[in-house]
Design goal:
The protein is of the alpha/beta class. The protein contains 14 helices and eleven strands. The strands form two sheets. The chain has a six-stranded mixed β-sheet with strand order 1-3-2-4-11-5, with helices on both faces. Strands 8-7-9-6-10 form a five-stranded mixed β-sheet, sandwiched between helices. α2 crosses α11 and α12 packs across α13.
């Protein structure tokens, strides 16, 4: 089923979190790829520290089961902004979903690992012909799985299980390995339940892995709203970097992980996120193009060039407390 026609499924799977008193005209609806993932930490920090309020906004956060579903929701108008890899923007533009990356968020696959159960004796090459768990087709986990197959010259079945199903399906033996994001990967390593056969932060060349995205028409008609939302989100990044204890406590609460795992997530991921969201300059364009090239993994299909999926009209100015 075409991902852009599955809005009803995505919406049913979503969990809406509405916060902050303001008028409907000042609402920004943000789609988050999955619950236990750093974009949720950023958005929740902006809410709890009232950074959206300082920008005169009401934030409505909706959590989806994968980045592909959050992008689909934006394409259908269910959310105004989401965070996803450049490949989804490029593929969407080819299919008539006109959106652009308006702020860079991450330049690496921090905390992402290809994992097998601890009791498994499989290594990377032995995964040939096996089942690899991913969140959803077109998601970051899917792209990394495809890249793995191309780079290691192996073939395997990519099995969508949703963000909430990665760990249970991996440990339950329904998949032989899974592409797992942080802090779930950190928790599995700490508990000894699974081990990594590939660390994507080290294996994949640095590129723009995630960015904040809006539809062209929304950027054109509600540009001030986009700017204010980005200000609040990057204000949250600044706050998190300056307030370790508060952020570690929030991560532990949101993701229901022990404090030591939350602290590892803080060091592994939060402290490596982009503090300057600007999309201006040739270096950013090259980082986006490399992301698109890596996503192709040898596929002959055309991709929309980097310059056509970038908007440099917004310069996030972090909101201060």
């Amino acid at each position: 089923m075409n991902m852009f026609r599955r809005l009803a499924l995505a919406s049913l799977a979503a969990v809406a979190l509405v916060t902050g008193p303001a008028q409907a005209a000042d609402t920004i609806r943000i789609g988050l790829p999955t619950k236990s993932y750093w974009p949720t930490t950023i958005a929740e920090t902006a809410v709890r520290q009232r950074l959206f309020d300082k920008e005169g906004l009401r934030a409505e956060l909706t959590i989806y089961r994968s980045g592909a579903e959050s992008f689909e929701a934006m394409a259908a108008g269910a959310v105004d902004m989401t965070l996803d890899p450049p490949s989804l923007v490029s593929n969407g533009r080819r299919k008539g979903v006109l959106s652009r990356i308006v702020a860079k968020a991450s330049m690496g696959n921090y905390g992402w690992q290809l994992m097998v159960p601890a009791k498994s004796d499989l290594d990377l090459k032995a995964l040939n012909g096996r089942r690899i768990g991913i969140t959803a087709a077109g998601s970051s986990s899917d792209l990394l799985a495809q890249w793995t197959g191309q780079d290691a010259k192996i073939e395997f079945a990519r099995t969508p299980v949703g963000g909430n199903g990665l760990v249970s399906n991996l440990l339950g033996g329904k998949v032989d390995a899974a592409v797992v994001y942080s802090p779930l990967s950190l928790q599995l390593t700490k508990s000894g339940e699974a081990r990594a056969v590939l660390d994507y932060a080290k294996a994949v060349p640095p590129n723009l892995t995630q960015g904040w995205i809006v539809l062209d028409r929304f950027a054109d008609t509600r540009g001030k709203l986009v700017q204010k939302a980005l200000n609040a989100l990057y204000g949250a990044v600044d706050f998190m970097r300056a307030n370790r204890d508060v952020t570690v406590k929030l991560i532990a609460e949101l993701y229901e992980v022990p404090p030591e795992i939350a602290a590892l997530e803080y060091d592994t991921t939060i402290m490596k996120l982009e503090t300057n969201g600007s999309m201006a300059g040739p270096q950013i364009r090259d980082a986006v193009q490399l992301s698109l090239d890596l996503a192709r993994v040898g596929s002959p299909r055309d991709v929309v060039p980097a310059e056509d999926i970038i908007s440099a009209k917004f310069e996030p100015v972090p909101t201060k407390l």
